[in-house]
Amino acid sequence: MDSTGTNFAPETGATAIDTPDAPDLVTVPTRQGLEAVDIIRRGAGLTAPGVGPVLHDGSGGTLGFLVPPGTADAWDLPGSACTQTNGRGMRFGDAASPTAGGTGWLLPPEAVGPVTDPAVLRAALGEAARLIEAADNCR
Q1: For position 16, what pLDDT does the model report?
Q2: What 3 state SS string does 24-62 have?
Q3: Most buried residue among 21, 56, 86, 88 by CB atoms closer than 10 A?
Q4: What is the dihedral angle through the alpha carbons of 62, 66, 71, 74, rounded to the nearest 10 degrees?
Q5: What is the pLDDT of residue 86?
């Protein structure tokens, strides 16, 4: 086998995400995302699975929830976006946080387990939006 000198193997202890099975990423405003994390964590194990890995951007403006591949094909929740990652720049299991644009883990994969269920996330984001609106109207 010929070698081009480029090594695409994951670092020791890291697991690269295979492109066909790479998770999609739902991004939301930080305030709504933090509320959703709390909502999902409160309900985890009772009626729904828990929250999966969550990224935060360096500026603190958005949170990103890893969801199963294919979620982006049908995601249509206003105020959020869902994009296919195709595994770009994602490695699980290594201690280093993602570095693109100062992005880091709010909830790292090794601490929370699998990706977030999109139906659970959608419900939590809806509830979070209602809570935020109610809080803002009380001022």
Answers
A1: 41
A2: EEEEEEHHHHHHHHHHHHHHECCCECCCCCEEECCCCCE
A3: 56
A4: -10
A5: 81
Listing DSSP states for the chain in one string gives ----S---SPPTT-EEPPGGGPPEEEEEEHHHHHHHHHHHHHHBTTTB-----EEE-TTSSEEEEEE-TTGGGT---TT-EEEE-TTTT-EESSSSPP-GGG-EEEE-HHHH-SPPPHHHHHHHHHHHHHHHHHHHHT-
Q: Give the residue carrying structure tokens 């991004």.
A: 27
Bridge partners of 55? 64, 105
* DSSP-derived pairing of the beta strands 81-84 and 24-29: antiparallel
Paired tokens of 79: 């105020």
Q: pLDDT digit string (tens) for 9-66? A: 333 333 444 456 899 999 999 999 999 999 999 987 766 678 999 999 888 799 999 9
Nearest partner of 74 among 82, 66, 62, judged by Cα: 82
